[in-house]
Design a protein that fits this description.
Length: 218
């Protein structure tokens, strides 16, 4: 799962809402992972990755904290835990005569919460963002940009940005945006872990990113 449009995310959402369930025998592996590592597994799936035709086992966890259980650092998985999961999957495959190849299989972990946060942020319309800017018309805001689960308020100059940070505008923007995004926070992930706005400047954008959103977000 990477974006809200991913098939894996849409399926995990259906499972979380009780509309679908993890298919057998993958459900057995999910239960084992939950019991052994004290995490919530929303789905387990298997596919063959081209062009090497290498088998991949995907573990879709519910929260960011669940995912971190299997990481040494972001995008660097714990090899011992990955190996234990692969071994258990091979045992289940043999017992259930699951017709899949496990040679050179690898495991990836993702979490539903991170994508749900992105989805909520994307659902806030540009009209609402324009109204948000008007609400703070006393501030010299150039624009507001969103990407993934980020919200960035751009002032015109670096000096204006620094002054805004000093007078606590980040907290004011967070409070206001939390109320705006609340109707789109379907699963309540933003209640205890809200989107924290950042403040930047057009001056920085022009001078250090050649006025290019491509360079800014890469």
């Amino acid at each position: 799962m990477i974006t809200p449009s991913d098939k894996a995310y849409r399926l995990a959402k259906q499972i979380k809402k009780g509309e679908k369930s993890i298919p057998h025998p993958y459900s057995g592996l999910a239960k084992w992972i939950q019991s052994k590592y004290s995490v919530k597994v929303l789905n387990v799936s298997f596919c063959i990755i081209k062009p090497d035709n290498r088998p991949r086992l995907s573990i879709d966890l519910e929260t960011e904290e669940d995912r971190k259980v299997f990481e040494r650092s972001r995008f660097c998985y714990d090899s011992k835990k990955s190996s234990a999961i692969i071994k258990k999957f091979q045992e289940i495959s043999n017992k259930t005569s699951l017709d899949v190849s496990t040679e050179k299989i690898f495991v990836v972990f993702s979490d539903f919460e991170s994508i749900a946060r992105i989805e909520a942020n994307e659902k806030v319309s540009e009209d609402i963002i324009d109204n948000f800017i008007e609400r703070f018309q006393s501030e010299n805001i150039w624009c507001i940009q969103r990407a993934f689960s980020n919200l960035i308020v751009f002032y015109y100059s670096e000096n204006e940005k620094d002054q805004a940070i000093k007078k606590g505008m980040i907290n004011q923007y967070q409070t206001a945006f939390s109320k705006i995004i609340e109707p789109y926070d379907e699963f309540g992930y933003l209640i205890n872990n809200p989107i924290i706005p950042h403040i930047d400047s057009k001056e920085n954008f022009d001078q250090n990113y050649q006025s290019s959103w491509f360079y800014y977000w890469r």
